[in-house]
């Protein structure tokens, strides 16, 4: 989980299978743009922590929620505030920027979702020619 500070939560359901290098980016990755610097100084602690209001005014995207039995491919990145349904498969290297419905498949392209059961998708896939 990257940029863990802030009020948002990450909830992961039961029996999920994350591949290596899966990253969840939280809302703390955002930076205020209305000050002298976009750097999140209060996150560094010390005397800067007295100015936590520089972080609390960020627009919230809500909690990131992952359902049960979700499979993530290697190197998947999940952006803040996303809801991933039950039984979802996220392919290798995908960047999930939007919600994925139950039993959908998140593909390589940002916000592309294939819906239906895995059996239906396999039946619809083109068949390899026989040699």
Give a verbal description of the structure:
Helices cover about 10% and strands about 20% of the residues. The protein is mostly beta strands. The chain has one domain: Hexapeptide repeat proteins (UDP N-Acetylglucosamine Acyltransferase, domain 1). It has a 5-stranded mixed β-sheet with strand order 2-5-8-10-11, with no helix packed on it. A 3-stranded parallel β-sheet has the order 1-4-7, with no helix packed on it. The termini are far apart. The model has no long low-confidence stretch (mean pLDDT about 75).
Put the structure in a nutshell.
With 131 residues, the protein is mostly beta strands. The chain has helices at 53-56, 118-124, and strands at 10-12, 17-18, 23-24, 64-66, 71-72, 77-78, 83-84, 89-90, 95-96, 105-106, 113-114. The protein has one domain (10-124): Hexapeptide repeat proteins (UDP N-Acetylglucosamine Acyltransferase, domain 1).
- What is the assigned CATH homologous superfamily? Hexapeptide repeat proteins
CATH topology: UDP N-Acetylglucosamine Acyltransferase, domain 1
Helix % is under 10%
What's the structural domain tally?
Answer: 1
Derived structural class = mainly beta
Question: Helices and strands in order, then pairings?
Answer:
Blueprint: E1 10-12, E2 17-18, E3 23-24, H1 53-56, E4 64-66, E5 71-72, E6 77-78, E7 83-84, E8 89-90, E9 95-96, E10 105-106, E11 113-114, H2 118-124
């Amino acid at each position: 989980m990257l940029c863990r500070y802030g009020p948002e939560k990450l909830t992961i359901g039961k029996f999920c299978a994350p591949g290596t290098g899966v990253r969840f980016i939280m809302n703390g990755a955002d930076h205020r743009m209305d000050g002298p610097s976009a750097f999140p100084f209060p996150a560094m602690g010390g005397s800067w922590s007295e100015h936590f209001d520089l972080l609390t005014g960020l627009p919230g995207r809500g909690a990131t929620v992952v359902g049960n039995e979700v499979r993530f491919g290697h190197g998947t990145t999940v952006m803040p505030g996303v809801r991933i349904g039950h039984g979802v498969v996220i392919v290798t290297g995908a960047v999930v920027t939007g919600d994925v419905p139950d039993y959908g498949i998140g593909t390589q392209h940002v916000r592309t979702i294939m819906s239906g059961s895995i059996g239906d998708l396999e039946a619809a896939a083109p068949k390899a020619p026989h040699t």
